[in-house]
Amino acid sequence: MRVLLSLSLALPIIASAQGQMIIGSTEAQAISNTLASHAVVLQTPDNIDDLVVTAPIHWNNNNSLTLAANRNIIFMGQGSLDNTAQATVTLQSDAAAQDNGLVLIGNNATSIQSQGQINLIEHPALGSALPNNKDQIAGHYLQMEAIDTPNDLQNISQNLKGSYYLNQNLNMKGFIFKPMGDMSTPFSGTFIGNHHLISNLTISAAQNDNVGVFGVIGPQGFVVDLSFDRAMIAGQNSVGILAGVNEGHINDISVQGEVNGVNNVGGLIGVNNRGTVQYTQATTNINASQDFSGGLAGTNSQGTISQSSSHSNIISQGSHVGSLTGDNYEGFLKQDYAWGSVVGEDNIGGLTGGNDSGIINNCGADVTVTGLGLFIGGLSGDNVEEGVISTSYSLSPVLQGKSYVGGLIGHSDGTVTNSFWDIDTSHQSGSSGGLGKSDEAMRTRSTYIGWNFNTIWKMQVYPALAAL
Fold this sequence. Notes:
28-stranded parallel beta sheet, 4 helices
């Protein structure tokens, strides 16, 4: 539980004529007392710009403290934050998203310290660097710049190693956006979306590779807590709404929109190259003129995509097409699910077009699969070499296909264990791996012997993933 403190609740905060909320000794003690049992969020009212801390705040547990000011947070006199445990401390200036806010630490401030994460959020419109007294911050701190406008978002390209915090929803309608970062200089910073929405993003770069908000997210890059709506993206190779290529960490991102390209075309990312993708969702329309296209990722290459889902429609003139990913090359797909429809030539699957020496574990698909060539399957078009598919299933209708067509897998010389397909909904009596069951059996929990229905799966009409 956290407590939101205001002028009328628990704290006799004094607002001066200069538009400042003052935390003096009485107020600091009240905050300290509250932190003994609850997390605290304190934000200035609409008519107050600055939050000024002039007395020490002490607590010795992991309850988090957030101080937010419409403009500046100022520590002066004996103002300090002293946590002797591992509490998360967040100091958010520019909370009003006015492109103007700093965290200022006066020379007499004792310290800001915690063994937990210290988040510092600012918008340095005044040209000042934060923090101005780094030696007075004890602990691991993350310096973040607030993003308030489309221009702020685009200006991340000027410092691809920085840390950023989306302060409000952004409507990008009419803004000409250019991808940020490439293979030689990827985005290697931190972007926290703060659960905000970016709508009407348009990127028109049909002749370019590595197209998305971030052209390339490097191994040190981290993007979290963000949604996209009504995005329109066009590129050539390695194209996605969030990134063309991901080599870093993506968590809790949802995308909705349309993506057009040639090779490695995905709703979220074009290529996941040894990156980590978790808790993501894609609702996309994908059009690819050649190979490797997926609703979430065009290719998952030695990366991990877990606890993610796609509800996408993909039309490709090439091979390797899946509603989640076009191909899983030596990668991991864990606790993922796909809906929608896919159309392509060879290696077409509901979840992934191909499982090339990868691992698919605890996944499912209910995708209309239309393949015009070879290796067509309800879950995966093929499962080759060292590929492993376990505790997974498919309800996908599997249509057409010249040969190597299966209810679960079109062709497999890898390992398939404890996995099933619905022979009624798929219209397929055979598969290169897995066990075919009637629709009635697929609706029965006892069919899935050895599956984890405590923490991974839950039984609805069919098995559903608890994480989604």
